[in-house]
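Key result, reporting period 2: structure in, sequence out.
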């Protein structure tokens, strides 16, 4: 499809260009490659497509066929330029069967062009770049240029050109980096450069300043104008780390005009680059090229692994206090870790602080350490009841429990540790005293805090002769993950929990009486006149349909999923509209049928299936026998056991269900003009619309003509095996399955003569 932009000439208005309509968004073409310049200098590059048979051809021979001045693209420092390797020709006009390599040839300002680098695969590559001839000094060695090929999005490849020296800021504050080249003679740029690195950021050092003297100072957000820190007291030097995997740590210090001290640690590590080699002729000095990562770290890090706020105080620094929120960390820069450090901690409900003294040689590193504050156990109450815990054999309840724990469930996890090492390392629990103020709560049987699932009962003794109140709950003990691996999390939860009333609401559930049948019933609140469903068990993993009816017998189906997670059974109710029902009654007969579950012959639970229709069904009583009773007109019953299908999976032919098929003896001439609807009135003088049938009035033996009345037994007749017609209304209803015998009350019978 081609789009043309046409020009129309008008004699009055001249030329008029027809462009795109307003709001039209033109689709931009996809460019599969992009180059980002992080060298700090200008970069020239050109893409090269090289056949595989010319891979080992020197770069000079490849570049001789190119016009370097016209074809090379220029990228300024910090910019990103997209590029592609394909020209404007069509792919079918080229030799597409040949394997080609996509390479880049790059030249950094101040250095010669380097050999080509393939960008077909994601990875980190490097090349050596020699200085240009205009720099006559022999001290300047080659520079190491790094090409980092990454996948940006789903298909675009980003080629980042940078130096091999990285600076990573792991401090909580931004830092300013000073790179001074003024005192070096082995450099091509003697200017001073400043960089800013945000917290958590990683920046490459400009290629022209990798040999510069490096100084760092923090930029604190809360500092006032004029209260900033000066650069660190000594430069950061990375040249002493020569082997990959080695790490050199050193403590730095920055002063302010108010005599504040900001301490931090530098960790220098060498990346996995090839070892350095002498530059120039044999016997030349070894110039160490940058291939390092410099990481700025705080000297002291305090991590709060508690579920509540942690308050700390540093005694060596007067007035240094702070608060750490749950799961977060904070850095302390004012303390000299070359001497002993004393930290005091306290919580909201524990105002008395505890002290931690860290000597200088407490850790393997003499320049930094990390303090993680955690608890051995968390008690997370998910029972929806006020529960009080105590160590077995200890008279006092566990620390951190107050008067409100006797009244309501604690929302935050309870920190717990065994206070008496000589007592039993088990726990006991009871419900709060305010849950049943007039009764006596009892402690449950002891349970351990090792990994696993346990079940206990909380008993409340009543003062009268009524049975005790018992609450059953599960205990799931599991170790923490990740940074919380030293903490065991204990979840006392309800034995069952379910969704009720409000959609998407989860509530805990306890059996009020454990001495009764533990079956759950439900009803729909938003259905007027909704009745309770049949009881069903929730003591094992299960999935079933629940049949809920209203007062008129209409059925509503719900899907129930019972899943055991940890120590709690989760009962989840969902709509069953998209799930096929467990049973379906197909009535292919000519008469309506009534069906119901055999064990519950209640009239309100009986359902009628019209002729040639289907009716979905789920058991009204899931725990009772799975059998269905069908009833035909006339009261004929037949029961069918559905467990046979559940066991074998094969269809079975049950007993036949027979019913009486009564007939009318009508005069056809009176039905010719009969109205289709019973609401339409006919003229009493029109004989062809009278619908006359033979009728025997009640209490009489005379056969008369009467208007047809649907359902009137006096107008119904049956055909006998002897070819006689017998009047149905002259005797009581009988079972059609029994052999016919003349009833003494059958007064009217006639013989058909043909």
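The corresponding designed sequence is given below.
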């Amino acid at each position: 499809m081609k789009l043309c932009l046409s020009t129309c000439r008008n004699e009055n208005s001249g030329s008029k260009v027809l462009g795109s309509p307003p709001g039209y968004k033109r689709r931009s073409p996809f460019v599969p490659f992009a180059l980002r310049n992080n060298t700090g200098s200008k970069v020239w590059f050109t893409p090269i497509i090289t056949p595989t048979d010319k891979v080992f051809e020197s770069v000079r021979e490849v570049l001789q066929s190119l016009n370097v001045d016209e074809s090379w693209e220029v990228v300024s420092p910090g910019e990103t330029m997209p590029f592609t390797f394909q020209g404007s020709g069509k792919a079918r006009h080229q030799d597409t069967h040949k394997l080609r390599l996509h390479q880049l040839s790059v030249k950094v300002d101040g250095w010669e062009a380097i050999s080509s680098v393939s960008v077909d695969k994601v990875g980190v590559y490097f090349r050596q770049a020699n200085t240009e001839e205009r720099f006559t000094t022999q001290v300047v060695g080659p520079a190491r240029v790094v090409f980092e090929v990454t996948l940006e999005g789903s298909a675009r490849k980003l080629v980042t050109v940078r130096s091999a020296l990285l600076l990573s800021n792991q401090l909580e504050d931004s830092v300013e980096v000073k790179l001074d080249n003024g005192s070096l003679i082995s450099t091509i740029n003697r200017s001073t450069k400043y960089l800013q690195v945000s917290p958590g950021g990683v920046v490459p050092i400009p290629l022209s300043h990798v040999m510069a003297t490096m100084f760092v100072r923090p930029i604190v957000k809360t500092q006032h104008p004029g209260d900033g820190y000066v650069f660190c007291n000594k430069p950061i030097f990375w040249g002493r780390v020569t082997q990959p995997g080695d790490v050199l740590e050193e403590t730095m210090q920055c002063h302010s005009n108010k005599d504040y001290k900001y301490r931090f640690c530098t960790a220098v590590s060498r990346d996995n680059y090839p070892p350095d080699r002498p530059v120039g002729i044999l016997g030349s000095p070894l110039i160490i090229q940058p291939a390092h990562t410099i990481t700025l770290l705080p000297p002291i890090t305090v991590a709060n692994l508690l579920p509540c706020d942690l308050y700390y105080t540093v005694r060596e620094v007067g007035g240094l206090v702070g608060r750490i929120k749950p799961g977060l960390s904070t850095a302390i820069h004012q303390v000299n870790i070359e001497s002993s450090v004393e930290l005091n901690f306290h919580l909201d409900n524990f105002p008395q602080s505890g002290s931690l003294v860290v000597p200088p040689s407490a850790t393997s590193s003499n320049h930094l350490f990390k303090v993680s504050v955690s608890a051995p156990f968390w008690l997370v109450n998910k029972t929806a009841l006020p529960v009080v815990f105590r160590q077995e054999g200890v008279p006092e309840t566990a620390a951190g429990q107050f008067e409100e724990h006797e009244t309501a469930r604690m929302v935050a996890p309870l920190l717990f540790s065994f206070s008496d090492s000589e007592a039993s390392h088990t726990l006991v629990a009871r419900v709060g005293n305010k849950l049943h103020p007039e009764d006596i709560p009892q402690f449950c049987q002891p349970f351990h805090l090792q990994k696993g699932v346990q079940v206990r009962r909380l008993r409340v003794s009543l003062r009268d002769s009524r049975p005790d109140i018992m609450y059953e709950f599960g205990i799931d003990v599991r170790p923490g993950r990740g940074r919380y691996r030293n903490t065991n999390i204990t979840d006392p939860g309800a034995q069952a929990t379910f969704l009720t009333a409000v959609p998407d609401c989860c509530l805990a559930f306890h059996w009020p009486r454990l001495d009764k049948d533990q079956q759950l019933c439900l009803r729909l609140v938003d259905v007027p006149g909704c009745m309770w469903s049949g009881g069903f068990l929730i003591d094992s993993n299960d999935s079933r349909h629940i049949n809920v009816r209203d007062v008129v017998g209409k059925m509503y189906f719900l899907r129930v999923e019972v899943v055991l997670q940890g120590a709690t059974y989760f009962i989840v109710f969902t709509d069953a509209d998209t799930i096929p029902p467990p049973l379906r009654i197909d009535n292919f007969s000519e008469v309506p049928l009534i069906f119901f579950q055999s064990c519950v012959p209640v009239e309100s639970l009986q359902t009628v299936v019209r002729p040639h229709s289907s009716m979905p069904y789920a058991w009204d009583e899931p725990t009772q026998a799975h059998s269905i009773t069908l009833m035909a007109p006339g009261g004929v019953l037949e029961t069918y056991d559905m467990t046979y299908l559940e066991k074998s999976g094969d269809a079975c032919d049950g007993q036949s269900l027979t019913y009486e098929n009564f007939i009318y003896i009508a005069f056809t001439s009176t039905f010719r003009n009969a109205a289709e609807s019973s609401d339409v009135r006919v003229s009493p003088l029109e004989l062809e619309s009278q619908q006359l049938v033979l009728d025997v009035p009640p209490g009489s033996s005379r056969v008369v003509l009467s208007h047809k009345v649907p359902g009137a037994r006096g107008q119904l007749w049956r055909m006998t095996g002897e070819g006689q017609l017998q009047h149905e209304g002259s005797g009581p209803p009988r079972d059609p399955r029994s052999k016919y015998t003349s009833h003494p009350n059958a007064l009217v019978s006639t013989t058909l003569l043909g």
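Residues 643-648 form the longest helix (6 residues). The first strand starts at residue 7 and ends at 10. This case is discussed further under Risks and Mitigation.
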